[in-house]
Structures are given as structure tokens and as C-alpha cells.
Design a protein that fits this description.
This protein is an all-alpha fold and 66 residues long. It is built from 3 helices and no strands.
Length: 66
């Protein structure tokens, strides 16, 4: 995975974590962006859990290729 894409994914995860805690943002929410781009289903916490697993799998793949 390209580093820029991976760091964008990490940023979206962090933004979603802040949304879960109650912080608002202008424009589309990280929750909406993640659901649209990755097709995850569920409430904010379930989507957060799914993206967290997704990131861990990417890290495992990247570490295996080194």
C-alpha cells in the first residue's frame, strides 16, 4: 500500500475515534467517508472496530513483505 494512502487511513481512523467521543467536524464525517469507501456496516463503534482490524491486517502484510 502506498504510504500516503495508509496514513490517510490512519487519519480517518483517528478522526472517527474523535467523532465517537463527540467531536464534530465540518463537511462529511469520517464515519460517512469510511462507510462509503470501504463498505463497512454498523454504528460508529462497529465501523471503528472494522477499520482497526483492516489496518492491523495491512500492517501484518507489510511486515511480512519486509
Amino acid at each position: 500500500m502506498i504510504d500516503v494512502d495508509f496514513y490517510r487511513l490512519l487519519t480517518l481512523r483517528s478522526a472517527l475515534e474523535l467523532e465517537i467521543l463527540g467531536m464534530k467536524r465540518r463537511g462529511r464525517s469520517a464515519y460517512a467517508i469510511i462507510k462509503q469507501e470501504f463498505g463497512f456496516k454498523g454504528n460508529k463503534q462497529k465501523v471503528y472496530d472494522q477499520i482497526d482490524v483492516y489496518i492491523k491486517k495491512i500492517k501484518e502484510i507489510e511486515n511480512g513483505n519486509d
